């Protein structure tokens, strides 16, 4: 009897001890997971603000019909207003980078989010058309400061995983192009106390923007304290020397890459503006089919996660050359097959164009942050983004004009020529890069695993 009781006590002690050990391990595992997730708070907040910025931009085109009903204006008038939005957005790239160099990234990102959110909230009440245009221009300025400064911020917050971080940033932002039209449809049947239902889009966007700005201002300085102060020893806006930034373009390799990004931006923005119309006009597809294929073009943006990760392992230029090469070959195939191929085959080539185009975008920013000096990183990146956004802003006008003077296939052949030129420049930079041997060694190392 005594032995049985002793055995029972030992078994009970063993079970209790094992349960405590298991519970402690579980708690430690949860704690470790939470700590790992907290490391990405800067990325999460930065990507969330970027999503909102692009959401506000992509929400305008689907609302043009509602704006015509509300204000009685023409397509030309609305198109001009949206062009103003994009031009202000483009112009803000350089000054936002310079201000980040002088004041810190946190100040600039927070201010941009607050400005954009405030402008969005002004559209929640009935007002003249001039107020809509003014709000669009202010939103263009507020959202325009984010991307340039965010690339600099994330490259410093995650120096060993910059490509991955920028891949997440661009992927999150791109998916706003899928969400915005859906949100417009969702609010169409609702009632709103202050006016038309489309104003709910901007009410929600404004409130979310204010919340994200507050969270960003409170949280990010704790994680990246250096981004709350100026980089240079002088600091302050008065210390801006434009010559410091223009001298970057005197570097032959930097100027070549800047030209590469301009050519790509022209192609990408021309495509995004006219893919649906091209598919219905030149390919003869229905509106529903064209819309589905257009959505797929954006949905494949998840590839940015992979290219960003690979660029951290293999280097930036190899991924840039491969991504642009895929986009160029696929676009040539897309245009060549137009009129003869069905939705499945032609859609496949369009998806391949999306894979190459989206795959390039995060690596572009990561590469620039490796070649621009740290003390002028924001302004240097801003200068390049001003050029590429300017090229992107005029692309729809040029493509539209060529499509009317000639036809859509001719206009898209122009886009194929520009992305092919960008690919050629990328191959040149890769072939003349001193890091090619390092890239080849990395490829062999991965192949052995």
UniProtKB/TrEMBL annotation:
<keyword id="KW-0812">Transmembrane</keyword>
<feature type="transmembrane region" description="Helical">
    <location>
        <begin position="72"/>
        <end position="91"/>
    </location>
</feature>
<feature type="transmembrane region" description="Helical">
    <location>
        <begin position="42"/>
        <end position="60"/>
    </location>
</feature>
<feature type="transmembrane region" description="Helical">
    <location>
        <begin position="257"/>
        <end position="279"/>
    </location>
</feature>
<dbReference type="GO" id="GO:0022857">
    <property type="term" value="F:transmembrane transporter activity"/>
</dbReference>
<keyword id="KW-0813">Transport</keyword>
<feature type="transmembrane region" description="Helical">
    <location>
        <begin position="127"/>
        <end position="145"/>
    </location>
</feature>
<dbReference type="Pfam" id="PF07690">
    <property type="entry name" value="MFS_1"/>
</dbReference>
<feature type="transmembrane region" description="Helical">
    <location>
        <begin position="200"/>
        <end position="218"/>
    </location>
</feature>
<keyword id="KW-0472">Membrane</keyword>
<feature type="transmembrane region" description="Helical">
    <location>
        <begin position="341"/>
        <end position="360"/>
    </location>
</feature>
<dbReference type="InterPro" id="IPR050171">
    <property type="entry name" value="MFS_Transporters"/>
</dbReference>
<feature type="transmembrane region" description="Helical">
    <location>
        <begin position="103"/>
        <end position="121"/>
    </location>
</feature>
<feature type="transmembrane region" description="Helical">
    <location>
        <begin position="285"/>
        <end position="305"/>
    </location>
</feature>
<feature type="transmembrane region" description="Helical">
    <location>
        <begin position="411"/>
        <end position="431"/>
    </location>
</feature>
<feature type="domain" description="Major facilitator superfamily (MFS) profile">
    <location>
        <begin position="42"/>
        <end position="434"/>
    </location>
</feature>
<feature type="transmembrane region" description="Helical">
    <location>
        <begin position="317"/>
        <end position="335"/>
    </location>
</feature>
<feature type="transmembrane region" description="Helical">
    <location>
        <begin position="381"/>
        <end position="399"/>
    </location>
</feature>
<dbReference type="InterPro" id="IPR011701">
    <property type="entry name" value="MFS"/>
</dbReference>
<dbReference type="InterPro" id="IPR020846">
    <property type="entry name" value="MFS_dom"/>
</dbReference>
<dbReference type="GO" id="GO:0005886">
    <property type="term" value="C:plasma membrane"/>
</dbReference>
<keyword id="KW-1003">Cell membrane</keyword>
<keyword id="KW-1133">Transmembrane helix</keyword>
<dbReference type="InterPro" id="IPR036259">
    <property type="entry name" value="MFS_trans_sf"/>
</dbReference>
<protein>
    <submittedName>
        <fullName>Sugar phosphate permease</fullName>
    </submittedName>
</protein>
<feature type="transmembrane region" description="Helical">
    <location>
        <begin position="166"/>
        <end position="194"/>
    </location>
</feature>
